[in-house]
């Protein structure tokens, strides 16, 4: 690999004639070891590249070499490298359009798109843009131009269609949109994938990533059932040797599950360094409002950073429900005085709880099906059903 | 237009437009001398779409920053206080003239601080008017358009805030920001967008008293604790209370629905005193009227309500917003221009 520029280019030429997408992809990947080769850092490689390579791969390689040049400079210029990488993508788009009815070139697109996103992220971190998110947004436009070519390729046969490359791009785009907080832009992408005939034949790793993001999206849209389904799929299929990814999935799956009435096991959380949720689960189970609020406050930054703060706040009514269930267990009667609930709430930290609010909370729990029964205002009593007055939460829709 | 074009006009209305409109008798009621139908008074530049074929504005057609400031002050003080005609009339005029100001902000490419100075009062005006005119007929006031403009102005203001380092704000500017952030949150109550923005705000803003109280309401709304929402809305200051109260009808209908399930019984009753206290009704008659609307049974003595799951009409639309006594009382105590111009919050 550490040969001359000439060697490198003839290597590319050979793979090009053999239509070997994977090896071409590694020739222009920023993760490949050829990038250490200083012979390849050329500021204006166009002439020599054009002499050896045919269009349309020549433009792609030229742009790639320029990226290497800017990254190899004494003072790394990420912004210029990023610009060249977007140039590279434009050439990739051209290539995709020219190679009709063939899809062996998709790996080239995957690699260049991945590198573009990573470079854009790097530029954002360095604060190179005037507005945060601006560069990533531009990068997303670039990725979209590839996506459009792939999505529109509906004339070639199922084996040769570029539509098979859609999911990879969608995942890249998700990563950008989640980072810049533009979740509404995900919707058309999700529609494109869900209506695709290849929905289930995309590679499994891509499907896992996809499900992870649509799960998070469903969570933001308060569609917890779907979020549970998607995230569970991701967790089930994520291989053992990716604990970091498993942890990422769990950060969202655990609170969603808690909301649906499942409590996490301590040892599982421990394994993934997510004991915050254990503390939360303990408070939840006890119906201890004070403790619950305290845990949220203590881990506020973690919850906000992960984007699950609002979700855990939503667990509050389950805390109330569990507290009321304990009151019921102690009293052992079907006619429960609401002032007993009020006293319990005050005892666990809701010191300013009024009887009016107690009524409202109980009413809400009945409405949601978390308590079976009715309230008698004049007697100030909750009359619960003789059977199963506090149905398990996972049975409540 | 590479260079910033800078206005030089010191009049509320540029001379060319004044001449034209006086000649063509295109003067608004508030631009005529008091009591006389033909004598021009003080003109204010009207809004005109920038369209193809219209000449690029000359510097003398655009107002200076100081003049724009004065224009806004004139509109939100002299005109808003003008009691000769109903408020929807005032609104139409001020809305249009402020829109022209907004257009000039864009034309002259004002920076964030300049923009905010002019934009903040517009937000206040639109928010106030949205409440003040919420009972009007559709021909007099279109709440949808008002919502749109309010949202647009708010978002523009929020973008400006994001560009300015919060550390560099003085106390007054910080208060203004907190107030507008609170308006945005309450105007968009229940949307995760607004809540997520709130979570990401710098602590200088999120810790401010006015914003914190709005945030508490939004969180309680998110959790479904309508009791705390209702209590919170009453405690908010004037315009925030007004904007938040626009959600009241929706909240009330939700509470009726919840209660229809929770107090569901053929025999048992719920006293109106409890409901009107909880749902912020000044008059029991209003409560009864609303119950009737949702087909909830009222007992003969008018003192009790009988909730039945099966009775409740879930297909009926939520009632139109109305003026709330506790909000109106807050406005009685303040001098409106001072609020609209954010001199005192």
UniProtKB/TrEMBL annotation, chain A:
<dbReference type="GO" id="GO:0000973">
    <property type="term" value="P:post-transcriptional tethering of RNA polymerase II gene DNA at nuclear periphery"/>
</dbReference>
<dbReference type="GO" id="GO:0003723">
    <property type="term" value="F:RNA binding"/>
</dbReference>
<dbReference type="Pfam" id="PF01399">
    <property type="entry name" value="PCI"/>
</dbReference>
<dbReference type="InterPro" id="IPR045114">
    <property type="entry name" value="Csn12-like"/>
</dbReference>
<dbReference type="GO" id="GO:0016973">
    <property type="term" value="P:poly(A)+ mRNA export from nucleus"/>
</dbReference>
<dbReference type="InterPro" id="IPR036388">
    <property type="entry name" value="WH-like_DNA-bd_sf"/>
</dbReference>
<comment type="similarity">
    <text>Belongs to the CSN12 family.</text>
</comment>
<dbReference type="GO" id="GO:0003690">
    <property type="term" value="F:double-stranded DNA binding"/>
</dbReference>
<dbReference type="GO" id="GO:0006368">
    <property type="term" value="P:transcription elongation by RNA polymerase II"/>
</dbReference>
<dbReference type="GO" id="GO:0070390">
    <property type="term" value="C:transcription export complex 2"/>
</dbReference>
<protein>
    <recommendedName>
        <fullName>PCI domain-containing protein 2 homolog</fullName>
    </recommendedName>
</protein>
<feature type="domain" description="PCI">
    <location>
        <begin position="208"/>
        <end position="389"/>
    </location>
</feature>
<dbReference type="InterPro" id="IPR000717">
    <property type="entry name" value="PCI_dom"/>
</dbReference>
Automatic annotation (TrEMBL), chain B:
<dbReference type="GO" id="GO:0005634">
    <property type="term" value="C:nucleus"/>
</dbReference>
<dbReference type="GO" id="GO:0005813">
    <property type="term" value="C:centrosome"/>
</dbReference>
<dbReference type="GO" id="GO:0051225">
    <property type="term" value="P:spindle assembly"/>
</dbReference>
<dbReference type="InterPro" id="IPR045107">
    <property type="entry name" value="SAC3/GANP/THP3"/>
</dbReference>
<protein>
    <submittedName>
        <fullName>80 kDa MCM3-associated protein</fullName>
    </submittedName>
</protein>
<feature type="domain" description="SAC3/GANP/THP3 conserved">
    <location>
        <begin position="12"/>
        <end position="299"/>
    </location>
</feature>
<dbReference type="InterPro" id="IPR005062">
    <property type="entry name" value="SAC3/GANP/THP3_conserved"/>
</dbReference>
<dbReference type="GO" id="GO:0005819">
    <property type="term" value="C:spindle"/>
</dbReference>
<dbReference type="GO" id="GO:0051298">
    <property type="term" value="P:centrosome duplication"/>
</dbReference>
<dbReference type="Pfam" id="PF03399">
    <property type="entry name" value="SAC3_GANP"/>
</dbReference>
């Amino acid at each position: 690999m550490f040969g001359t520029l000439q060697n490198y280019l003839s290597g590319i030429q050979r793979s090009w004639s053999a239509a070997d997408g994977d090896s071409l992809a590694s020739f222009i990947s920023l993760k490949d070891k050829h990038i250490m080769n200083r012979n390849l850092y050329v500021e204006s490689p166009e002439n020599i590249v054009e002499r050896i390579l045919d269009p349309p791969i020549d433009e792609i390689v030229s742009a790639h070499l320029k990226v290497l040049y800017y990254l190899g400079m004494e003072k790394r210029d990420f912004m210029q490298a990023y610009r060249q990488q977007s140039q590279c993508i434009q050439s990739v788009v051209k290539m995709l359009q020219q190679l009709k009815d063939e899809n062996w070139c998709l790996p080239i697109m995957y690699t260049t798109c991945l590198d573009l996103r990573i470079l854009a992220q790097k530029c954002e971190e360095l604060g190179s843009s005037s507005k945060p998110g601006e560069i990533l947004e531009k990068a997303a436009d670039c990725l979209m131009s590839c996506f459009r070519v792939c999505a529109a390729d509906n004339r070639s046969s199922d084996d040769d269609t570029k539509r098979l490359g859609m999911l990879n791009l969608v995942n890249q785009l998700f990563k950008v949109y989640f980072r810049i907080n533009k979740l509404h832009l995900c919707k058309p992408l999700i529609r494109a994938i869900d209506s695709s005939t290849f929905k289930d034949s995309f590679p499994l790793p891509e499907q896992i990533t996809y499900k992870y993001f649509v799960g998070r999206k469903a969570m933001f849209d308060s569609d917890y059932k779907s979020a549970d389904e998607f995230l569970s799929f991701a967790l089930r299929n994520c291989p053992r040797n990716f604990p970091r990814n498993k942890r990422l999935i769990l950060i969202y799956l655990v609170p969603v599950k808690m909301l649906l009435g499942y409590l996490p096991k301590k040892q599982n959380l421990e394994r993934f360094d997510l004991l915050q949720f254990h503390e939360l689960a303990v408070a939840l189970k006890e119906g201890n409002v004070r403790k619950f609020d305290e845990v949220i406050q203590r881990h506020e930054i973690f919850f906000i950073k992960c984007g699950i703060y609002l979700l855990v706040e939503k667990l509050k009514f389950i805390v109330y429900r569990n507290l009321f269930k304990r009151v019921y267990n102690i009293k052992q009667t079907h006619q429960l005085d609401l002032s007993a609930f009020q006293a319990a709430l005050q005892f666990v930290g809701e010191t300013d709880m009024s009887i009016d609010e107690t009524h409202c909370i109980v009413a809400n729990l009945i409405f949601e099906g978390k308590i079976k029964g009715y309230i008698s205002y004049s007697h100030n009593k909750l009359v619960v059903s003789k059977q199963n007055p506090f149905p398990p939460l996972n049975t409540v829709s | 237009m590479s260079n910033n074009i800078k206005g030089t006009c010191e009049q509320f209305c540029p001379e060319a437009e004044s001449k034209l409109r006086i000649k063509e008798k295109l003067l608004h009621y508030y631009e005529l001398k008091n009591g006389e139908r033909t004598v021009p008074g003080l003109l204010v530049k009207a809004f005109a779409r920038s369209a193809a074929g219209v000449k690029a504005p000359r510097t003398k057609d655009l107002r200076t920053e100081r003049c724009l400031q004065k224009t806004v002050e004139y509109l939100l003080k002299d005109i808003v206080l003008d009691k000769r005609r109903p408020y929807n009339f005032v609104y139409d005029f001020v809305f249009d003239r402020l829109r022209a100001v907004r257009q000039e902000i864009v034309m002259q490419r004002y920076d964030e601080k300049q923009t905010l100075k002019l934009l903040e009062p517009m937000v206040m005006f639109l928010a106030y008017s949205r409440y003040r005119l919420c009972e009007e007929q559709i021909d007099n006031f279109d709440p949808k358009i008002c919502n749109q403009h309010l949202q647009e102005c708010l978002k523009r203001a929020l973008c400006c805030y994001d560009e300015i380092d919060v550390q560099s704000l003085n106390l007054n500017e910080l208060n203004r920001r907190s107030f507008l952030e609170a308006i945005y949150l309450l105007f968009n109550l229940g949307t995760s967008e607004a809540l997520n923005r709130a979570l990401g705000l710098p602590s200088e803003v999120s810790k401010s008293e006015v914003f914190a109280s709005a945030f508490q309401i939004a969180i309680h709304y998110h959790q479904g604790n309508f009791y705390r929402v209702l209590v919170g809305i009453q405690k908010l200051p004037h315009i925030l209370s007004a904007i938040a109260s626009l959600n009241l009808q929706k909240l009330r209908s939700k509470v009726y629905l919840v209660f229809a399930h929770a107090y569901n019984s053929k025999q048992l009753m719920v006293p109106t005193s409890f409901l009107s206290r909880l749902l912020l009704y000044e008059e029991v008659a209003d409560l009864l009227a609303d119950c009737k609307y949702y087909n909830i049974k009222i007992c003969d003595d008018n003192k009790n309500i009988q909730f039945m799951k099966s009775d409740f009409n879930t297909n009926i639309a939520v009632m139109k917003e109305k003026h709330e006594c506790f909000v109106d009382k807050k406005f009685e105590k303040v001098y409106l221009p001072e609020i609209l111009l954010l001199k005192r919050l």
